[in-house]
Amino acid sequence: MKVSIFDVAKKSGLSVVTVSRVLNGATSVRENNRQKVLDAIKELDYRPNAAARSLASGKTGIIGLIVTTLQDSFFDAVVKELNETLALHGYYLAISVYDGIGSGESHYLIQEDRVDGLILLSPIKEDNYIVELKRRGIPYVLIDNQLPENDSYSITIDNFKGGYAAASHLLELGYTSIAHLCGQEMFRSTRERRAGFLQALQKQGLAPFEIVHGEFEITMGYDTAQGWLAEGKLPGAVFAGDDNIALGVINALMEAGVKVPEEVAVVGYDDHYIASQLHPHLTTMRQPADKIGVAAADMLLRRISGEMKRGSNIKIDPELIVRESTVGDANIQR
């Protein structure tokens, strides 16, 4: 038998009106009641009738998500959380992999009122999107956007704090010769992680061993470490701009018989799935995909319902996850 909104109300012990308000993203519902409804929806596997809701509300029941790539486990985790959270509210997530829109070009998800709202995950040309979204009156939320002036309606990671924490961890272990391998300069995360790293070193009166610019790719870390090995000069530690770069560094060092962390310590960023599977397991800065996804979905639902009148930026802290690539006999000056 098909589960109805009345079944959800009975299961949660609340009224149909309250259940309906939760489904429509109303923020006036008390948090404990909201959670009761979401728990009941999940337990009963309730799925609102999208067609009926669309006819009644004039909405599509679809949220669009534009992402630059899905070849990234952090992005995958955010998308999974978004999909699950929005489904609980009766929305279908339509995903498009697209790297930006050129001047005068409009993305198909934005055209013809196909979506009730749009989420942009780490957009490259966000200004082009925002102009079109505002023109069409489509609510949107940015995740990991590149321009601080677009922080209204955005969820960002405190990447400065992440870079600072990564460097501080290595400094506390006694390392003084630390290299940083950056991603592409177009990304705000690259610039902020580097700035945090440099501030931590400057507070100790230190300069970096080297700062290398490249892409968030395994080959970037591998080639850089190969260059150091060829020159016969290695840093005591490396802060990699992401886990892919860190993996490349570790591969090159271990191929050459250089022990990690005994001879060179390595810290990554993101906490990709691979980070806990490597040997040695990778110390890294975790970006909490669950918190990011829930915060973005909640903000967009409040925009769609009309309950969020003013822009807001939610900044989420990364978390240092200490594993084998930095622990060990490292408490000496290097």
Automatic annotation (TrEMBL):
<keyword id="KW-0805">Transcription regulation</keyword>
<protein>
    <submittedName>
        <fullName>LacI family transcriptional regulator</fullName>
    </submittedName>
</protein>
<dbReference type="InterPro" id="IPR046335">
    <property type="entry name" value="LacI/GalR-like_sensor"/>
</dbReference>
<dbReference type="InterPro" id="IPR028082">
    <property type="entry name" value="Peripla_BP_I"/>
</dbReference>
<dbReference type="Pfam" id="PF00356">
    <property type="entry name" value="LacI"/>
</dbReference>
<dbReference type="InterPro" id="IPR010982">
    <property type="entry name" value="Lambda_DNA-bd_dom_sf"/>
</dbReference>
<feature type="domain" description="HTH lacI-type">
    <location>
        <begin position="3"/>
        <end position="57"/>
    </location>
</feature>
<dbReference type="InterPro" id="IPR000843">
    <property type="entry name" value="HTH_LacI"/>
</dbReference>
<dbReference type="Pfam" id="PF13377">
    <property type="entry name" value="Peripla_BP_3"/>
</dbReference>
<keyword id="KW-0804">Transcription</keyword>
<keyword id="KW-0238">DNA-binding</keyword>
